[in-house]
Every structure is written in structure tokens, then in C-alpha cells.
Amino acid sequence: MLIVSGTMKIEESGIAAMKTAAETMSRETRKERGCITYAFWQNVEDPCEFRVYEEWQDMDYLKSHAASDHMATYREKLKEIGVIARDINLFEPGPFTKL
Known about the structure:
By secondary structure, this protein is α+β, with helices and mostly antiparallel strands. It has one domain (2-91): Alpha-Beta Plaits. It contains 3 helices and 4 strands, in the order E-H-E-E-H-H-E. The protein has helices spanning 15-29, 59-66, 69-81, and strands at 2-10, 35-42, 49-56, 83-91. Helix 1 runs antiparallel to helix 3.
């Protein structure tokens, strides 16, 4: 399993557009093969910051996601929204215990 998690800081004027883009992106991505979970959250202390969290079965599925049409559309939307900062990371977790 792979985990992708990180934050994006956007311009205040782009908040509504980001919510719409994130909702569409999440809905379409969760339909993809290999996607375990995919969601965004808005920071309650800083409404211009959004966190994305993804889980994928393996790298091939993640690469397929990166090449998807909805990802290309989302990337174009981010250009319009105005991303100030982006910090997205990929993790390959080892064994874990469910609490």
C-alpha cells in the first residue's frame, strides 16, 4: 500500500473553486481501480490550506491516476485557483497495527 498526503495553500479568492475542484477530483478518483481512499480537508484555522490524503494499492495504480483525464483537468483548475505553496509526500508504510 502507498499513502500520499500533504497540503496546499491557495489564494483566498480561490477557496470556493478549490472546494468544487477537490470534490470533483475526490469523487472521480475514488472510482479508479487501486484507489483505497482519497479525500481533501480544509484547515479550520486557515481556510486557505487544504490537506489531501490518498491510499493506493500500488505504484502502478498511482501512476495510472497521475495520467488520468480528471487529474489533468484538476491540474488546470489549480493553475486558475492560485496555489501559493504545495507540500505533497509519498509514503510506503511497513506493517501496522489497527488500533
